[in-house]
Amino acid sequence: MKKLPEKIKKIEKLTKEIKAELVDITTEEDLMFAVMNLISLEEHFYMAFCQTKKDIYLELHDEIRKLRRKAMEKLIVNTESQVWCISKHLLATAMRLKEVADKVKDEKLRKELYEYSFDMIKIFKLIHKK
User: How high is the pLDDT of residue 17?
Assistant: First the structure.
């Protein structure tokens, strides 16, 4: 009976560790989607500037870009060679494929595009495996 409280403490500790890992995974994925949306915002501000020639859109583009870079620094662990740029393009591609899939009426194509999008996320995670 004396060992029961010790076992309960070990189980509680393990449970906390598992929950912490799950929170980290969710946080990482949330940050990935935030970066994806920041990349999309950069694209939209770029297009708005090109279409209107209003400097405000270029200024907003630059501010969003700075914010995206800061967010990526928290997400990217592998900075060798071209990995930073590859990572940005993987996340941008994942977001764009998801957005296209969201609009597609054909269910088979929609699912296929979601899978392609998730493949980009899996490759991103693979090159940043901790």
Answer: 62
